[in-house]
Amino acid sequence: MGGSLAGLLAAHVLAGHADRVTIVERDRFPDGTKPRPGVAQGRHPHVLLEGGQRALESLLPGFLAQLRAAGAPRVGLPSDMVLRQDERWFRRVPATTHMYTGSRAQLEELLRRRVLADPVIGVLEGTEAVGLAGDASRVRGVLLRDRSDGARGEPRTLAADLVVDASGSGTRAPQWLTAIGAQAPREETIDTGLAYASRVYRGKDGVLGGDTVGYYVYPTPAQVHGGGALPLEDGTHLVIVSGLRGDEPPTDDGAFASYARRLPHPPLHRWLDEAEPLSPAFGYRRTANVRRRYDLPDRRPAGFLATGDALCTFNPVYGQGMAVAAMSAAALRDALADPRRTPTTARVQRALLAASRQAWDISAGADRAMPGATGTAVAGRPMDRAVGWYLGRVQERYPSDPVVGRAFRAVLTLSAPVTALFAPPVARAVLFGAPLPAPAEPPAAPEEQGTAALP
Fold this sequence. Notes:
By secondary structure, this protein is α+β, with helices and mostly antiparallel strands. It has twelve helices and 20 strands. Helix 1 (5-14) runs parallel beside helix 4 (104-115) and helix 2 packs across helix 8.
């Protein structure tokens, strides 16, 4: 259920284990790289982090080369961007990780082309899932309705040995499970009230200036306004500004650019003064972290799995969703192929949740500290205070310390486990070293290898 990234990749994996895989998609897929209505964040910035790149390449060898050939920008961190967090500018030391910043529509179209070339996989477009078939012991299919029939159309049953919910954050599967006598999952939520707005611009020289291809100010408890500009595949930039509940960014022409003046330094709004807007501004406010605990031992039927945003939704400001979709598909592949264990529904569902755990810990951990955060998981665990003290020292150092920065970026991009932050060289710098000086102004160019930090 769902033909977006998580659904396409799950279908690709399942095609190696089934006679037939059917993707049920309520939209009709567009021709070419166009946003579609069912992707609520489709017009907003998307990044593919390194952990997601590795997973995608393992699932679809050669996909990253296709992405580069299509023009998707590959941005090195921190060298290619001007970055600011907690009142510190980042040193632009040589890149230790890269992310792709092209449009969501481009990546999804390339992925759709690869996955749907498999004759085992079919698609029902313009078709809405409206319920599950089966009972509390086993799901045996899904109830479907053609969207052209409206709400009055009679549902039909598509029988299936396995139903995968990849319908996104708006999933109705918990209610459908209750309707067949099973239990809905317990939900963990953290909502900061963050809202953002995005708009496409073209700068005079196509970039933010000189050797800088992007700019970003991370929102923090001390600086709740965030924003930046990321390059797209056609030479334009997608600009985003964000604020918290009660101070949401506007979407009308003049006010959007003016809102950027709330950032703590003028580079972005100065660039906007001279750049040409190419699209309307679009707003987005559904940014809560939500985790559905299908892994817990409740009354759940066999033959049903949840993945992607239907399982775990993150505050989009951290850019984790596409990477976790790919990593979850890799986890599904590995769980089904494991010769040591029978892939029961419960075991595979636990593997899917484990694939999203690090991203949840990062997103939820950061959002718990934001002013006005609400939800069932805001309190955290007793150990979070000690971990938070250590991570606070990491964050003080990673903008300017290359050793701490390399480790922290690897964790944030989901390419290394959290334990990388406790490796001896990192721990020494965090526990015993003073923070290195950070640039006093936005660094205009990348540092050469070995260049000292400027006060």
